[in-house]
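in:
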């Protein structure tokens, strides 16, 4: 993000790669929480879901930014 965000002109391809990575994070986090693969505690499961919502929100905002480019 730092390397992309500090550029005077942001590459659409780079931004798309960040969006895809964020969406992959969301999907994999939900899979981990649902499958209990890592056996998170109740607080840990809530944390995973909250983190997923945050990263998903960033992906949405980045998608909006990409459309405006």
């Amino acid at each position: 993000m730092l390397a992309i965000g500090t550029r005077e002109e942001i590459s659409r391809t780079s931004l798309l790669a960040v969006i895809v990575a964020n969406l992959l994070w969301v999907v994999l986090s939900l899979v981990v929480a649902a499958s209990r693969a890592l056996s998170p505690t109740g607080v840990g499961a809530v944390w995973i879901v909250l983190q997923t919502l945050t990263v998903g929100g960033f992906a949405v905002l980045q998608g909006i930014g990409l459309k405006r480019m």
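note: The first helix runs from residue 2 to 5.
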